[in-house]
Specification:
single chain; alpha/beta; Rossmann fold; 6-stranded mixed β-sheet; 4-stranded antiparallel β-sheet; 8 helices; globular
């Protein structure tokens, strides 16, 4: 039976950087086995929030609990997978060598190496040096690292940026498959056509949530035809000007 404890619980989260407030008293929970989308323009605070979830961001106030433990706890090391927006793989190693290295660091089974390479569609490039990969292939190699060990929570920062529509579709099919197996995903994007693939959306702007709900719920509540129009409507409403 799936635990009733949420995968993520954030209460009163506030982050400041250089005297500027980056996240403004955010509170939300993410049920296990769901796909949460963080949607908003560049600079709105998505990456900072994701850093808080994996425990690598200094916070001014509030609490972040992940899988029942404080974010960043040692016990979460193998339970949380994190794919950064900037790939963290080694350029002078092959795809397979990178996966072997990170599997050893994480204590993941060696059998995971070929599994994650195939899951992200790099089977024909497993022996290719990372420096020679295309931008999209590099992003997929970075995602493969996050999948090592079959983590319970995946925090993915812009995982499909630079990919063509076919590869994006394949990755979202993988995300839904992982969710169906009980994994929880937090996926950031600034592309609205990806937002409809999530179970729930947090629309962000300037460190705040403009809205929180399922994609069809947000379009219905704003009386708009699509999520891009809904987001613009909410921005105007938040600013106090007519939509």
């Amino acid at each position: 039976m799936m635990s009733s404890v949420p995968a993520v619980s954030v209460q009163g989260l506030r982050v400041e950087r250089g005297g500027r407030t980056v996240l403004r008293d955010l509170s939300f929970e993410v049920p296990r086995g769901s796909v949460l989308g963080l949607i908003g323009p560049s600079g709105c605070g998505k990456t900072t929030l994701m850093r808080c979830l994996v425990g690598v961001q200094i916070v001014k106030a509030g609490t972040v609990t992940v899988l029942g433990e404080p974010a960043g706890s040692k016990g979460l090391r193998r339970r949380v997978g994190y794919a950064t927006q900037t790939p963290a793989v080694y350029a002078d190693l092959s795809v397979r060598e990178n996966m072997r290295y990170f599997a050893a660091v994480l204590g993941a089974p060696r059998t995971d190496v070929d599994r994650v390479i195939d899951e992200v569609g790099l089977g024909h490039h497993r022996d290719q040096v990372v420096a020679t990969l295309s931008g999209g292939q590099l992003n997929r190699a970075n995602l493969a690292v996050a999948l090592l060990g079959d983590p319970e929570l995946l925090v993915l920062d812009e995982p499909t940026v630079g990919l063509d529509p076919v590869l994006r579709e394949e990755l979202w099919e993988l995300f839904r498959e992982l969710s169906g197996r009980g994994r929880t995903l937090v996926v950031s994007s600034h592309v609205m056509d990806e937002a409809v693939r999530t179970d729930r959306l947090l629309l962000m702007r300037e460190g705040e949530f403009l809205a929180d709900g399922a994609p069809d719920e947000l379009t219905r509540l704003t009386g708009t035809a699509d999520l891009e129009a809904a987001f613009l409507h909410l921005i105007h409403e938040h600013a106090g000007s007519p939509a």
